[in-house]
């Protein structure tokens, strides 16, 4: 057991307005989610002394400075680590360490994005730039994209292990069933495996229903020391174990197209938490694409490498299945503002608190969150639970 | 419609200028580390295996096989609007390094993993020629 763990807890979580929110800026969405998360904790913005955030930018804004300024916070601990959608999961490790070391006491992790409004709709171009600087010049001129990058991994996994589009579709179908029980989820109408297979091919073998939504949204998570957490509004959800890792930036550099860095971050999180896979009651796995989930489940060790397809078959991750996963409806059906990591934490905390109403996983005491960022590049794993 | 929109063009920099200069002459060149002996792609100012600075350029055979691929049905950039569907692939070169490219000169639906391919060169601008691959 590492000394860092069980010393910090998540005490507040919230999402902002989600969906298509063109009248609000990404900064406002982030700040409003922050206010709601602080309310949830029974804390005020005056209590915050650590800020952790990254914003999708064109201009290289210094995210934690910008958001602190926007909200009137002058932190003594600041972190703009920017490793894609996993950043927010990784911040839990950083915040727990900072709190444990006494470098800050109340850590605010926040995120806001107007991804769909900025792009002018889901089908809008991902990029319009005409000159490619830096190493990306060995990829972008070939017309790659985020979905193509994940598709390259999916194709390789199918080749090596015989994984099928039907098995990937199982994930999308199960996730939609969870979304149908979440009034905040954007896509709630049931879908079938055939619906996924018949949906438009975006980048083979990934269909549009294998892909996450593109939305506007904000989210926030507040952490503090276990000691201070005891006096706050809600039951604290302790940080039991964490891990972070990355093994490439660009997809062409991915060492093994069938495994993510969750093989490292997950192993660390389990070891540090002192729990095993069987102990996990609910899993919130960043589902940028169906293949992301499949690779992550294998990499985390919930099944052997190559057996992810069989693992998710028979609607195992759906409500009533024996592996409840992405219980708010995930990035596939709930919301996806470009970087989803924070929403895995928000749902995990609500599940452990028992706040999830019809979609509540019975007796959920131990939750695992895994964020994936970049193009299967970075991962953060966090195990949360009651103490 | 964005048909005349230019595709994204590489801007050569210190690490990559020799690579693009060679491509202009229809040569695919790679780097090898003189300290540890390993080849690397993409070009860097140091060796990504041992961080050594003594790197030499050498000509690739231009032959390899498809490690993985995808048929892209959507243009991620307006410059590709007329190209869809097109193949984005990871090529494993004989020299042991992997690079991204397009596979051209064949029906996208005939592309398979492990398919042998060879380099061809597509002139994009007077300064930039892109190595692409075609069935060998």
Brief digest:
The complex is a heterodimer of chains A (387) and B (136). Chain A has 387 residues and is α/β, with parallel strands linked by helices. Chain A has 13 helices and 12 strands.
Verbal overview:
The complex is a heterodimer of chains A (387) and B (136). Chain A has helices at residues 26-41, 63-71, 87-100, 115-119, 146-161, 165-179, 193-198, 226-229, 262-273, 290-300, 308-312, 330-334, 341-353, and strands at 8-15, 50-53, 77-79, 106-114, 131-132, 201-203, 206-207, 216-225, 237-246, 282-285, 366-373, 378-385. Chain A is α/β, with parallel strands linked by helices and 387 residues long. By secondary structure, chain B is mainly β. Helix content of chain B is 6%, strand content 39%. In chain B, the strands form two sheets. A five-stranded antiparallel β-sheet of chain B has the order 7-6-5-8-9. Chain B has a three-stranded antiparallel β-sheet with strand order 3-2-4, covered by helices on one side. Chain B is globular. The relative contact order of chain B is 0.20. At the A-B interface, β5, α5 and β6 of A face β1, β5, β6 and β7 of B.
Give the arrangement of secondary structure elements.
The complex is a heterodimer of chains A (387) and B (136).
Chain A: E1 8-15, H1 26-41, E2 50-53, H2 63-71, E3 77-79, H3 87-100, E4 106-114, H4 115-119, E5 131-132, H5 146-161, H6 165-179, H7 193-198, E6 201-203, E7 206-207, E8 216-225, H8 226-229, E9 237-246, H9 262-273, E10 282-285, H10 290-300, H11 308-312, H12 330-334, H13 341-353, E11 366-373, E12 378-385
Parallel strand pairs in A: 2-3, 2-4, 10-11
Antiparallel strand pairs in A: 1-8, 1-9, 4-8, 6-7, 9-12, 11-12
Helix pairs in contact in A: 6-10, 9-10
Chain B: E1 9-10, H1 17-24, E2 29-33, E3 39-40, E4 55-59, E5 63-72, E6 86-93, E7 98-103, E8 116-123, E9 129-135
Antiparallel strand pairs in B: 2-3, 2-4, 5-6, 5-8, 6-7, 8-9
């Amino acid at each position: 057991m590492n000394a860092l763990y069980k010393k910090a807890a998540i005490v507040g979580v919230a999402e902002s307005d989600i969906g298509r929110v063109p009248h609000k800026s990404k900064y406002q969405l982030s700040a409003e989610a922050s206010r709601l998360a602080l309310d949830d904790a029974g804390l005020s913005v005056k209590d915050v002394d650590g800020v952790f955030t990254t914003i999708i930018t064109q201009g290289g804004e210094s995210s934690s400075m910008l958001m602190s300024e926007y909200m009137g916070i002058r932190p003594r601990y600041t972190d703009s680590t920017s490793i894609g959608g996993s950043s927010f999961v990784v911040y839990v490790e950083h915040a727990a360490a900072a709190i444990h070391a006494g470098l800050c006491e109340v850590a605010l992790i926040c995120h806001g994005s107007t991804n769909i409004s900025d792009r002018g709709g889901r089908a809008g171009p991902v990029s319009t730039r005409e000159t490619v600087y830096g190493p990306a010049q060995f990829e972008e001129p070939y017309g790659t994209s985020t979905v193509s990058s994940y598709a390259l991994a999916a194709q390789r996994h199918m080749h090596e292990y015989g994984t099928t589009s039907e098995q990937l579709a199982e994930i999308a179908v199960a996730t939609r069933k969870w979304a149908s029980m979440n009034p905040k989820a954007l896509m709630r109408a049931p879908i079938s495996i055939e619906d996924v297979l018949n949906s438009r091919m975006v980048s083979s073998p990934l269909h549009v229903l294998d892909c996450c939504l593109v939305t506007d949204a904000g989210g926030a998570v507040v952490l503090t020391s276990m000691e201070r957490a005891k006096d706050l509004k809600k039951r604290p959800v302790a940080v039991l174990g964490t891990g972070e890792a990355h093994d490439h930036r660009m997809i062409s550099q991915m060492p093994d197209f069938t495994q993510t860095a969750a093989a490292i971050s997950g192993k660390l999180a389990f070891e540090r938490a002192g729990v095993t896979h069987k102990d996990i009651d609910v899993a919130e796995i960043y589902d940028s694409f169906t293949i992301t989930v499949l690779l992550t489940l294998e990499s985390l060790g919930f099944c052997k490498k190559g057996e992810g397809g069989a693992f998710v078959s028979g609607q195992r991750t759906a409500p009533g299945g024996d592996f409840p996963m992405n219980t708010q409806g995930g990035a596939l059906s709930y919301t996806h503002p470009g970087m989803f990591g924070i929403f895995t934490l928000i749902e995990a905390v609500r599940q452990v608190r028992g706040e999830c109403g019809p979609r509540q996983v019975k007796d959920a005491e131990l939750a695992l969150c895994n964020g994936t960022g970049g193009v299967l590049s970075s991962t953060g794993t966090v195990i949360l639970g009651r103490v | 419609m964005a048909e005349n929109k230019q595709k994204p063009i590489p801007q050569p920099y210190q690490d990559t200028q020799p690579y693009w200069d060679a491509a202009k002459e229809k040569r695919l060149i790679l780097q090898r580390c003189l300290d540890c002996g390993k080849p690397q792609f993409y070009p860097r100012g140091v060796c990504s295996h041992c961080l050594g600075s003594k790197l030499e350029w050498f000509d690739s055979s231009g032959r390899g096989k498809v490690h993985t691929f995808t048929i892209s049905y959507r243009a991620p950039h307006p410059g590709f609007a007329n190209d869809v569907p097109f193949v984005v692939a990871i090529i494993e070169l004989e020299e042991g390094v992997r690079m991204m490219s397009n596979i051209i000169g064949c029906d996208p639906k005939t592309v398979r993993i492990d398919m042998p391919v060879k380099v061809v060169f597509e002139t994009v601008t007077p300064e930039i020629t892109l190595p692409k691959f075609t069935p060998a």
